[in-house]
């Protein structure tokens, strides 16, 4: 939101974000902690019949999500949160991916011991 607010073409028309009640607006200067606190307080999932994103495109082999370059979260990894799918859908995708990886990890651990 902060990036959008500071674009020259729109800067003159946007005064500030209309934050949820009891929450400070986010700005371009908001920290990762500020954003995480906002997500924890008002974050939600939405289900859409058209689906979401393929897990292979946003999750690495350790089930950690990739963030877009240039975002304030760049370089951080966490489980992706697409806004067009339900939370159980993410669990199912992660579970399927884990089912492929866990046997290999167990085999590697046995070989090392």
TrEMBL record:
The lineage of its organism: Eukaryota, Fungi, Dikarya, Ascomycota, Pezizomycotina. This is Uncharacterized protein. Residues 13-34, 71-91 are annotated as: Disordered. Residues 13-30 have a biased composition (Basic and acidic residues). It comes from Paraphaeosphaeria sporulosa.
């Amino acid at each position: 939101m902060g990036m959008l607010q500071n674009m020259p073409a729109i800067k003159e028309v946007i005064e500030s974000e209309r934050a949820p009640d009891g929450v400070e607006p986010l700005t371009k200067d908001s920290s990762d902690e500020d954003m995480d606190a906002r997500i924890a307080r008002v974050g939600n999932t939405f289900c859409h019949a058209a689906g979401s994103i393929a897990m292979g495109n946003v999750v690495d082999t350790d089930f950690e999500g990739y963030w877009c370059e240039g975002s304030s979260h760049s370089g951080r990894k966490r489980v992706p949160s697409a806004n067009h799918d339900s939370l159980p859908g993410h669990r199912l995708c992660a579970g399927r991916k884990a089912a492929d990886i866990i046997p290999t990890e167990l085999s590697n651990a046995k070989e090392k011991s």
